[in-house]
Specification:
With 97 residues, the chain is mainly alpha-helical. The chain has 4 helices and no strands. It has helices at 10-18, 37-42, 64-76, 81-96.
C-alpha cells in the first residue's frame, strides 16, 4: 500500500508541530529581485474569483458506494463531482418546493 502524502497524515502533523516559525526580520530577502513594471502589469489575482454568490462549506456523510457513483457520473460529464452534487440537490429542491 502506498504511503499517504497528505498534510493531514500523522507524519506531517509531527513535522509541522516540531517546526518553529521564523520571524520575517530573520529571513534574508536580498537574493529576491524586485518586480519590474512589466511583471506587475501582468500579475493577476490568485484564487477563486470573488462573486456575490459564494457557496457555504458544509460536511455531510455519504456512503462510499454512492460517492463513487457520483464521481463516475461527474467524470462522464467532465465536471467536478461536488458541482454535480450541487446541481442534483438544486434540481431536487426545486421539484420539492
Amino acid at each position: 500500500m502506498a504511503s499517504k502524502r497528505f498534510a493531514s497524515s500523522a507524519h506531517a502533523k509531527r513535522a509541522v508541530g516540531s517546526a518553529r516559525p521564523i520571524p520575517d526580520s530573520k529571513i534574508d530577502f536580498s537574493e529576491i529581485p524586485e518586480s519590474t513594471e512589466a511583471e506587475l502589469k501582468r500579475a493577476r489575482r490568485v484564487g477563486r474569483p470573488r462573486t456575490g454568490n459564494a457557496k457555504q462549506l458544509i460536511a455531510i456523510r455519504i456512503s462510499p458506494r454512492l460517492l463513487a457513483l457520483l464521481r463516475r457520473l461527474a467524470a462522464k460529464q467532465s465536471k467536478p463531482y461536488q458541482t454535480l452534487i450541487h446541481e442534483l440537490l438544486e434540481k431536487a429542491a426545486r421539484r420539492a418546493a
